[in-house]
Amino acid sequence: MPKPVLWLRCEKKEFERRAALTPTTSKALIDAGFDIFVERDQQRIFDDSEYEAVGCKLVDNNSWPSAPTSVPIIGLKELPESTDPLPHTHIQFAHCYKKQGGWSKVLSRFHRGGGTLYDLEFLNDANGRRVAAFGFHAGFAGAAAGALALAAQRKGETLGLLTPYENESAMVNHVKELLGGSGKGVKALVIGALGRCGRGAVDLFRKIGLDEDNILKWDLPETEKGGPFQEILDVDIFVNCIYLTSKIPSFINHESIAAAGKQRRLSVVVDVSCDTTNPFNPIPIYNINTTFDKPTVPVDVGEAKPPLSVVSIDHLPTLLPREASEQFSSDLLPSLLEFPTRATARVWTEAEQLFREKLTEAAAVEGL
Ligand SMILES: NC(=O)c1ccc[n+]([C@@H]2O[C@H](COP(=O)([O-])OP(=O)(O)OC[C@H]3O[C@@H](n4cnc5c(N)ncnc54)[C@H](O)[C@@H]3O)[C@@H](O)[C@H]2O)c1
């Protein structure tokens, strides 16, 4: 049997420094008998030499289109827009199964090239849970952005540009420094605290020095009584990390903020869930997604103090590219080890079946 192969392509999306394979997971695959090709990539948080050191074969940046079509290409984010046919097998997030803008055009490239897409968002375990997701570091980075926004607000300033951190301790140290050495005394409430993002948010608050009693952790039982919740108005930072599936009462709204008046402690809301345009958004106090260069949007609270702002960045893990990649890639590893038997391995057969269904829909739309 020929040796199994994977080809890690470069990322072309702006600001994207994460990688689907890390030097650690590449080594595990090589130890299991794989050949791993890695495109040189200045944008990636990991140096090319880190891959070389564990036995990967380095190839030119963006050279995957000329790889033999039998070689599966793995990447993280969408390919740059193009109409070129795609003859290879691709493992990546393609964001084209939920009828996102341009979805049928993306899939039509596979139709014309005869390639296959295994979308990372739809690799599920036997219980229907994603085998790999970026949640933990989204919550971790979101809580950090919230703490930074609080520190800026306390100085009468607005939080400026956020840039990816080299590693987690650089982020933790920076947040602590801007809070005057520690987050002690800050009070936070995390809703969805038992989920991936929620656990990450709680972890950041612990690491920057909040007292355990000052990190309120809520999940389904605590919100069952139905909002709006006074408890949210009584903390400095509220982080929403729920997985929204249906209409629920608002957690906070303009009326509850106005009613709190001068008694309000709440200064920053971090909406990690980012259901910004969802009609069921339980935080209907803002309506845009914020960005790394403008991380907060103010909430109109009239003359009331303190000011209140919302962080609603929808790609938070990018702030911690190293750790986020390590966690995602190691969660993906058991499935990648099964990739050579993808004709029969459940996680891959289900993903391929979904691809075929979406491909048929796209072909009809595109008239192919
Ligand atoms: N902003 C970003 O960069 C970013 C990145 C990754 C994920 N996300 C989003 O974050 C959300 C959470 O993702 P996750 O992977 O942590 O999900 P998850 O399923 O691991 O956790 C969600 C948690 O929310 C809880 N929950 C659901 N409804 C609730 C309610 N009404 N009240 C209280 N708790 C409730 C669940 O019990 C669960 O513990 C998703 O919407 C996801 O798309 C955002």
From TrEMBL:
GO terms for molecular function: saccharopine dehydrogenase (NAD+, L-lysine-forming) activity. GO terms for cellular component: cytoplasm. The active site is at K77, H95. Disulfide bonds join C197-C241. It catalyses: L-saccharopine + NAD(+) + H2O = L-lysine + 2-oxoglutarate + NADH + H(+). NAD(+) binds at R129, G195, R196, D219, T223, Y243, V272, I313, D314, H315, L316. Its EC number is 1.5.1.7. Keywords: Amino-acid biosynthesis, Disulfide bond, Lysine biosynthesis, NAD, Oxidoreductase. PANTHER family: SACCHAROPINE DEHYDROGENASE, SACCHAROPINE DEHYDROGENASE [NAD(+), L-LYSINE-FORMING]. Belongs to the AlaDH/PNT family. This is Saccharopine dehydrogenase [NAD(+), L-lysine-forming]. The lineage of its organism: Eukaryota, Fungi, Dikarya, Basidiomycota, Agaricomycotina.
